[in-house]
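hey so i finally got around to running the thing on that chain from the lab meeting. sorry it took forever, my laptop kept dying and i had to restart like 3 times. anyway pasting the input first so we r on the same page abt which one it is
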Amino acid sequence: MKLPFASSQNNLNSTHIKQEATGGGGGGGGSIGSIRYEPKSVLDVQRSPPSPVTGNINNNNNNNITSVFSSSEDRLLLDNNINIHQFEEWDSLMKELGLHDDSTKPAYQLDLPELPPIHTEAAAPATAMFFHSDFENLNPNLNAVDFMGQDDDDNNNNFVDELIRIAECFETRSIQLAQVILTQLNQRLHAPTGKALQRAAFYFKEALQALLTGPTRVTQSSSSSEIVQAIKAYKTFSNVSPIPMFSDFTANQAMLEAVDGAMIVHVIDFDIGLGGHLASFMKEIAEKGEVHKANTPAVRITAIVPEEYETESKLIRDNLWQFARGLKLRFDIEFVSFRTFEYLSFKSVKFMDGEKTAVILSSTVFHRIGSSFGFINDLRRISPHVVVCVDGEGLMGSEPSLFRQTVIDGLEFYSTLLESLEAANVGGGGGSEWIRKIETFVLLPKITAAVEASGRQVASWREAFVRAGMRAVGLSQFAEFQAECLLRRVQVRGYHVVKRQGEMVLCWHDRPLVATSAWRF
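ok and heres what got predicted. didnt touch it at all, straight out
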């Protein structure tokens, strides 16, 4: 459904809205201090078709590989500084996820002494919660269904107009009127039921209400049960939708081609999610070394994560370490908090001579770090071999964000995404439990972050990249071939891949869902 509304020109920061609604001070132009961060996706680590990328691997060993990873005091110190009492039933969480708690062991070294034997698929449950081995659909007997014919002209659809009125109130600081409209809207959108557009409207209503009164439900997943539920939701999302796999293998392929031939590969990831895409990347690196009968490069990962991501970071670290040991891959991972990065920029990241660097960004990350020229100039100074950006918000964020336009664009995008999920749920409509979990743990945090970031009036990241002299590097034909293979395995009509101005875009019918692009200076 198209929502043809023009954007108003008011500029208002969401922090001011929350301060006025709660009686807080009015000064300051900063953004909301803590944006809800959500994991991105769970990617399979299956063997990809052989890549046509070739290159001479340097067989010379770097003697300094094994002695470079001392942690900074400003980083998230996950080994010793985690207070386990903050997280409920940590041991049961590790057991349920099939992970071993190595927090009491000394730091791993890249030479990996006395490596254990490689696990077979039958004996390697550690990654089962995070990665799936094949693209599967929950309904193996699924017939192709097209939900695009749903009636969007119901009389009850004036909740869209009310949501837009609330967004306009935010821009004009009419806070009391916004609260009155929200009270009325709560009676109509009291639960995430109905068609895709109505459910999307419910989640935007929740996000707008959170700016006024604080969240109406627990949004910080700190307990073990909430983390397990979130992981299961992302795994389900990956199993029923091609979006996560498309995002991950296109990004991985761009990085693999850029760092080919390096003996030290350094990935700086601003949206690590659950780390599944990095496991797939590591597997490709290891397999490539075997094919070339050469020394496998060392892989370094620096993840920029929110402060509240300690528990997830520990799980990612332990899981990727186990996976790397199974691959006999020299590996290290460090975590830097967003707060530290905002102060120190790339000075908070440790670099090594001779390494090839790849940077992963996502459209949602720009809600936090912005797309300022200061950030891009700092990015230029580290001379990355490739900057990969995964835009998982369709056309959202292509213009400076305002509350009104965020709601309009967001309703269109997320109702489209929900329609694509409904097509994988024959006979269940939007009432299926697994769809509800995907909406709660995958989509709602993204909607909340987008609404909180509204009104900042920063340039779109694409525009900022171009103005800074960055150029888009088209993805390879092999990446396009992989995308087509993926869609042939999807049992639902409507998905297709297009190339657009150097980007590779996955669409649901004629509407974009996610786009991957690679950039260089």
